[in-house]
Amino acid sequence: MRAQLYLDNRIRKTLKEPYETFAKTYVERVIPIFSSLEEESQVIADEKYEDLGRYFNPESDDPADYAEMAWEAGLEHYESMSLMQYNMRLMWISTLYQFWEQQVRKFVFEEVTRTHKFIDKKGNDVDFAGFCTRGIDDIKEEFNEFGQDLEKLISWSKIEELRLLANVIKHGEGWSATKLKELRPDYFDAGVISTDLLDLYKTTLGERVLNIDDSEYEIYCDAIIQFWDELPEVMYSK
């Protein structure tokens, strides 16, 4: 009897639901956390100026110096919180890919092992810990065994983009960064600065080097939902 991957409406719905929740939560709860950074920074600057004013000596102090110190306090808060906002965005994106890869891996393993066992080249049983250990390459091979070329799915280009982005977030410069620059040069666009910020800072988290908008998170969630919708209900092994 051939092994099969069974994806009925109930299973499909269960696999898609997390991404609907992720997108909704990100838009309604995460983005608003940082929606008033400019106002917060101005409040901090005003409070700093007021605090400094208590020690102001009109005979020896320059009001412009106090104003500058207050402005710097507000700017420091803005830059610190902006970096936190940027890092949180990248963490959500990176986790999204990892969640999907683990979800797919678990789906294939559980479906096949309902009726079959995975056997390695030495004839030993393969448990879940030893299954698809090479990540996406092994996952694509498994689906090929069931007649599904994942790279031909409409959703695949965005999922591959997400995979590369997750790797760049984790590792910085490297092969994934080179490929992602080809697919999404806008992610590396520093605006008026011509320098490649990733090359300059050698990090994706310590500085704001990736130009990624919040809307991209929803787009990636939609792509994964589309992935599960594109797969047929029953996939038989070759």
Account of the 3D structure:
The chain has 238 residues and is mainly α. The protein has eight helices and two strands. It has helices at 9-30, 37-53, 63-112, 136-145, 156-171, 175-183, 197-201, 215-230, and strands spanning 4-6, 234-236. The chain has a two-stranded antiparallel ribbon. It is elongated and about 95 Å long.
Summary keywords:
238 residues; mainly alpha; 8 helices; 3% strand
Topology:
Elements: E1 4-6, H1 9-30, H2 37-53, H3 63-112, H4 136-145, H5 156-171, H6 175-183, H7 197-201, H8 215-230, E2 234-236
Antiparallel strand pairs: 1-2
Helix pairs in contact: 1-8, 2-3, 3-4, 3-5, 3-8, 5-6, 5-8
**Residues in helix, %:** 55-70%
- Describe the main β-sheet briefly: 2 strands, antiparallel
Main β-sheet, spatial strand arrangement: 1-2
- In quaternary terms, these chains amount to single chain
Report how far the terminal alpha carbons are from each other. Answer: 11 Å
Secondary-structure element pattern, one letter each: EHHHHHHHHE
**Which structural class do the helices and strands define?**
mainly alpha
